[in-house]
Amino acid sequence: MECVSEIPQRGPEGLAADSAKSITLLDIGMVEDGHRASYVSFLSSLFPLERMGFCRRAVFSRRPVLVPMVEESFLIYAATAVIRSLMGRSTAGLLFRPLPALYGNGVRLKAKYLLLALLRRFPRVTTLTILPFEVEPRFAEIADDWIHDPQLWDLEEQKRQSAPPSTPGLLNQLHASAGGRPICMAIGRQDRSKGFDWFCRLFAENLRLRESVLFAFGGKVSQDLAAPLESFTRSGGFGCNRFVSDDELMQLYSGADLVWCAYDASYDQASGIFGRAVQLGIPVVVRKGALIHRQCLREGIPCVAIGTADHDWESLSHIPPREPRAVVLARTRRMRDESLQTLHKALDLRR
Q1: What's the Cα-to-Cα distance from 239 to each of 174, 211, 260, 274, rounded to whole Å?
Q2: Record's superkingdom (predicted)?
Q3: Strands across the sheet with 214-218, in order?
Q4: Are the C-beta atoms of 209 and 239 separated by less than 8 Å?
């Protein structure tokens, strides 16, 4: 991959954009889309950085190297980290999906576990999960430390917007459909991994739930869920089965009393939808025992935890209130400060 660099920037923490404190962002295999561009932009607000693809200059950079998503090209991350360790240079990588390496049965996943465990023995190599070790103590077998998922504290860095959406058309439709009922909202792309089939089934099969709560979603639905979607729509659920703009996404959050994060067991990981809801003080629906459920318990985040038991849906009729803004901001700032402290340590940066 050809080297691509960007001009270092000054972040909100007051870091000077000089070579002594800048880092190399090793962008290995990341697909350039809106989410990734936003992620890289956020990282550049934290550190003066030079973004590069995988190349000799990046591997041998004298500056600390940060790999923003280890899973995108794990072998390149491992090889780069080992080479740089032997030269006495620092490398850190963010591990988004640690559970497959811990509990997977295939040869590839077992090899990944062994390599991650081996990397812990190398000096100046720091693999970081984006969930606390408390929610899964076995993370410590394959990672050196952890930060909070950036999507739990990035809105603070982007000067959180409190103004209402500029064109509230979707929000008006949502409120009209609710007729005074609280709204449980599923946001973004909808498929089985996001628990959308469960979401549809709960609403369609429970009359008392439909009478007390409106289920609604905004985002494109996977084609293999046409049947559950049809049943959901017939039962009076609110749907916007298409791509939704950033402004419309904020309308969906604004109208939600509860955000659906009860994802399938195959998607047991940090979630951007979850992070946004938490930063906005909106209670969340989580699957009992999931990592984000454990995180809610750890952080005191208001949630409704449901399982597959027949009557678990009844708890959805008892929605906790939104968190006070002061509580949300205090948590967000603490998560930011804790995460930045860990990142600075991993990258050998002086604050």
Answers
A1: 9, 17, 14, 20
A2: Bacteria
A3: 238-240, 214-218, 183-187, 258-261, 284-287, 303-306
A4: no
The rounded average pLDDT for each run of 10 residues, N- to C-terminus, in the chain (351 residues) is 43 40 78 68 89 90 94 93 97 97 95 98 98 98 98 71 60 93 97 97 95 96 97 97 88 95 95 95 97 98 88 86 95 96 92 52
Distance CA 54, CA 117 (A): 23
Query: In the chain, helix, strand, coil percent, each to 5?
Result: 45, 15, 40
Domain 23-158+334-346: which CATH class? alpha beta
DSSP secondary structure code for residue 72 in this structure: G
Q: Can you give the residue ranges of every domain in the chain? A: 23-158+334-346, 169-324
Query: What one-letter code names the amino acid at 345?
Result: K
Instruction: Classify domain 169-324 at the CATH topology level.
Output: Rossmann fold (3.40.50)
